Amino acid sequence: ELKVEQNPLFLSMQEGKNYTIYCNYSTTSDRLYWYRQDPGKSLESLFVLLSNGAVKQEGRLMASLDTKARLSTLHITAAVHDLSATYFCAVDINMNRDDKIIFGKGTRLHILP
Amino acid sequence: DTEVTQTPKHLVMGMTNKKSLKCEQHMGHRAMYWYKQKAKKPPELMFVYSYEKLSINESVPSRFSPECPNSSLLNLHLHALQPEDSALYLCASSQDPRGAQNTEAFFGQGTRLTVV
Description:
The complex is a heterodimer of chains A (113) and B (116). Helices cover 0% and strands 60% of the residues of chain A. By secondary structure, chain A is mainly beta.
């Protein structure tokens, strides 16, 4: 059974600090997504990571993927209040030629001004 | 156009009602998904359609009935729901359900369903 584990589940941090969210998964996959969700809203795609060693950056967020370790990280640099949201990683697995996207439990990020 | 459109945005229905949720995309995506999300929980996969055929049903109760009339449309028919079915229902689509590269899943804005 595929497990996708994120940690921490909740993070309160000061503006200007750096932090990393971790996403571990239990089965082979070569596609991993990071999404952001604001309260009451849908999911906003942040990154799609397609291969081992992939690194993508957008503004203060940087995501990486290590398929051998089955680990992805989302690094936040010099956090600002606007980044407060819930962040989900999601793993794409191929089941009998069909894709199934399974989400981690999410990390609620609260950035204090 | 990278949009997945869901209607309605909000729905309140009684336990004896029949209603439908609709999802539409015009990106040529051949995989479409329904997810259910309860408050402060991650989205949970319900159904996957691949080339307009139901390929994954995650043991969803029969009071939820999906339908894919064509490659752009995905419906979720609701009948005899329970209050615990109240949630945000998200539709998503991706380009190729058979593991092609550059497959990104796009989500609609969701339908917030309340069963009374």
